[in-house]
Write a structure and sequence with these properties.
Elements: E1 6-7, E2 10-11, H1 19-28, E3 45-47, E4 50-52, H2 57-64, H3 74-77, H4 84-94, H5 101-106, H6 125-131, H7 133-145, H8 156-160
Antiparallel strand pairs: 1-2, 3-4
Length: 161
């Protein structure tokens, strides 16, 4: 409550630990603190512009993390029987954010960028999963257990489909 943050006629706030807190403190010091003793100090919690009677963590979470449109591939990655580590890796791979050698080198790391499987061309997501000879051999083994496609997988979208 405001009464807990003032002493007499001045603010009694903890030392700010972020730039946003510094800005808040700067703003608060511009406000007059003439609070009459007979006025009740109340607070109101709002989530997405709607007042709530009490704090609601779910409503707060939904405001802080707005939902995006469901992706067509979501059920390939996130499903009931998925191994969390595998689902997370697939999700990261879908957005092409895997820490491949070429990507790590682009961040300034002094490493070889050649594919770790074949050691020929730069390592990328598509190279590791689709175009490397090692990957092709793995896919061949997988497809012997299920109905194989007529041709080699060409790109990431085809793999997800």
């Amino acid at each position: 409550m405001v009464a807990d943050a003032i002493t007499g006629s001045s603010w009694s706030l903890p030392h700010p630990r972020s730039e946003q807190e510094v800005e808040l403190h700067s703003y608060l010091t511009t406000l007059a603190l003439l609070l009459p003793n007979n006025v009740d100090d109340v607070y109101e919690w709002k989530a997405a512009g709607y007042p709530l009677n009490v704090f609601n963590s779910q409503a707060t979470w939904e405001v802080l993390r707005p939902r995006q449109v469901t992706q067509v591939w979501h059920d390939i990655v996130w499903f009931k029987g998925a191994v969390p580590k595998h689902a997370f890796t697939m999700w990261v791979a879908k957005y092409d954010k895997l820490p491949t050698r070429a990507r790590l080198a682009s961040w300034g790391l002094a490493i070889l960028i050649a594919c770790s499987f074949c050691n020929t061309v730069p390592e990328s997501r598509d190279r590791m999963f689709l175009s490397c000879q090692y990957s092709y051999n793995v896919w061949s083994l997988v497809f012997t257990k299920c109905s194989p496609p007529q041709q080699r997988l060409a790109d990431w979208a085809e793999l997800l489909s």
